[in-house]
């Protein structure tokens, strides 16, 4: 059996997929956000017709959608996500750049822990843009697929026979509709009702796990001077020992000559809820680049968002399931958005879908091989995000037993990334979802982290102005 790290690397491949298409007639995707659109792109290789049913009215205007309340906040297209977008839509990177997305080289990316800047991690260029912009770019390319149809409607239920899902019921413009399906993919997000429909029909729902976060975000746009900035994107993460419930701050260059700046906190910590507080903190409490990003005038108002928890539905552990039913994106797992894993997880789920359908699966049986494959991605993202969340004072879930040892070793590795370029690169690959977190737990990585304890730590980068 392949290790989780090796399976993760295979899922993240950028090579053209191999294996015969599944030869389906009609498939239905529930939901048309990033996860649903990427699933539709993969399914277009396997089905004569792909139907996407999306509740929100989709237009050509780049704007946040009601169904994506977090769409107003900073979104990171991690390296893994960018690579998969280019894989499924060749030329995506160049097209997005031409439309306004900002290319960021490794030298333009600044990562700080408690104000100390980490060594540059040479992992390739990235694209920065707003979530609505990226989603529109993907949607335009999916609409060009001749066998994909998007319906504006609200899914109201699933149809089953004795062993499998057979179709989807929905409402559109006040009328009821029905779509028969050889395969149904749930991409309706963290509020998915598919579990309810399963239990109502006598099936077992996937068990739900929740990790309380109580994370608060405050985001605003600022004017960005023309030209290529020295630092085009930055993140300053604060450890619980340094920041308590103050998580940190991030900014990036986005389309239309703007900076997008976001500040986050846990529990009752709600930093940056006013423009005055956001600007003051960036200029006085964080490294100098953050102060410069807010120095050329705010555009509009500060927009806040709160997410109570991270959650995952463990489909791989579900009991009695119908055949021909899959789930992707936030309908499977949604994480604390501060880690930027959502869009890239959705892209990797699409890769899992491709691998599954090209493996010659028995679609008359529950799709357990798919859920087992997908679980490797979910476990990796979940481990990265929840470990940091649990240590916050407002959550206060200290690790126990073996978990405590793992947390201590992980903390030692993170601390060493400020002085060890090799570990900084490895850590960047993990947080960018290029490699599995297990690569940081090898004897070699732990030995480097142990040796780094004796290396003097750099001083934090000073803020733009004194408090």
TrEMBL record:
InterPro entries: FAD-bd, FAD/NAD-bd_sf. It comes from the Bacteria. One of its GO terms (molecular function) is FAD binding. SUPFAM superfamilies: FAD/NAD(P)-binding domain. Pfam families: FAD_binding_3 (PF01494). Gene3D superfamilies: FAD/NAD(P)-binding domain (3.50.50.60). PANTHER family: THIAMINE THIAZOLE SYNTHASE. This is 2-polyprenyl-6-methoxyphenol hydroxylase-like FAD-dependent oxidoreductase.
């Amino acid at each position: 059996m392949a290790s989780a790290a090796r399976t993760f690397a295979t899922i993240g491949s950028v090579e053209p997929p191999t294996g015969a298409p599944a030869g389906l007639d009609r498939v239905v995707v529930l939901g048309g956000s990033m996860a649903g659109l990427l699933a539709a792109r993969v399914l277009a290789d396997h089905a004569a017709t792909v139907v996407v049913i999306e509740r929100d009215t989709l237009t050509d205007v780049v704007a946040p959608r009601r169904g994506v309340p977090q769409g107003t906040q900073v979104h990171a297209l991690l390296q893994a996500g960018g690579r998969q977008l280019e894989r499924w839509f060749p030329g995506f990177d160049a097209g997005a750049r031409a439309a306004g997305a900002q290319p960021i080289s490794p030298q333009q990316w600044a990562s700080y822990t408690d104000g100390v800047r980490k060594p540059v991690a040479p992992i390739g260029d990235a694209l920065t843009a707003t979530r609505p912009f990226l989603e529109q770019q993907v949607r335009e390319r999916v609409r060009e697929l001749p066998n994909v149809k998007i319906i504006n409607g609200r899914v109201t239920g699933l149809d089953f026979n004795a062993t499998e899902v057979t179709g989807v019921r929905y409402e559109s413009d006040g009328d009821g509709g029905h779509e028969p399906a050889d395969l149904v993919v749930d991409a309706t997000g963290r509020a998915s009702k598919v579990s309810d429909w399963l239990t109502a029909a006598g099936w077992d729902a996937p068990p739900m796990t929740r990790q309380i976060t109580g994370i608060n975000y405050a985001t605003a746009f600022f004017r960005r001077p023309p030209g290529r900035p020295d630092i085009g994107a930055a993140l300053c993460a604060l450890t619980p020992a340094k920041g308590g419930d103050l998580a940190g701050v991030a900014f990036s260059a986005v389309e239309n000559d703007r900076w997008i700046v976001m500040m986050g906190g846990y529990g009752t910590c709600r930093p940056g809820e006013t423009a005055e507080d956001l600007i003051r903190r960036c200029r006085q409490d964080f490294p100098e680049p953050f102060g410069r990003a807010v120095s050329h005038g705010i555009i509009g108002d500060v927009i806040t968002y709160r997410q109570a928890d991270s959650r995952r539905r463990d489909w791989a552990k579900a009991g009695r399931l119908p055949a021909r039913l899959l789930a992707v994106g936030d309908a499977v797992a949604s994480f604390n958005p501060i880690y930027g894993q959502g869009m890239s997880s959705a892209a990797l789920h699409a890769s899992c879908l491709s691998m599954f359908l090209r493996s010659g699966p028995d679609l008359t049986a529950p799709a357990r091989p798919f859920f087992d494959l997908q679980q490797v991605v979910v476990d990796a993202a979940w481990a990265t995000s929840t470990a940091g969340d649990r240590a916050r004072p407002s959550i206060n879930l200290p690790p126990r037993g073996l978990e405590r040892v793992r947390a201590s070793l992980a903390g030692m590795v993170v601390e060493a990334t400020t002085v060890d370029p090799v570990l900084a690169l490895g850590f960047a690959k993990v947080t960018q979802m290029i490699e599995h977190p297990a690569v940081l737990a090898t004897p070699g990585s732990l030995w480097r982290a142990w040796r780094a304890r004796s290396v003097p730590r750099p001083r934090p980068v000073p803020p733009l102005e004194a408090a």
